[in-house]
Amino acid sequence: MNAEEAKEVLDKLANREMEEFRITKEEFLAFREVLVKRDDFKHFRGNAQHNGVIIYTYLEEARS
């Protein structure tokens, strides 16, 4: 996953065009690099699953 693909996915989550997005442990670092630079970073929740899969969702209220 490159930075442009990650940005597109994050925008879709924020705009409610997607409910959730799954990434693998191999994609995690590239995805996270884009995620932490966003102003709405605290609205994203990553839920770790088995085998290094992470499910990201967008929250109405920012997490603390």
Proportion in β-strands: 15-25%
Separate helix tally: 2
How many β-strand runs? Answer: 3
- For the largest beta sheet, what order do the strands appear in spatially? 1-3-2
Sum up the overall morphology in one term.
globular
Q: Which structural class do you get from the secondary structure elements?
A: alpha+beta
Q: Can you summarize the main beta sheet?
A: 3 strands, antiparallel
SSE pattern: HEHEE
Mean pLDDT: 96
Distance between the ends: 28 Å
Overall tally of structural domains:
1
The low-pLDDT segments are none
Please tell me how large the radius of gyration is.
11 Å
In which range does the helix fraction lie? 25-40%
Organism: Peribacillus castrilensis
Protein name: Abortive phage infection protein
Notable traits:
64 residues; 3-stranded antiparallel β-sheet; single chain; alpha+beta
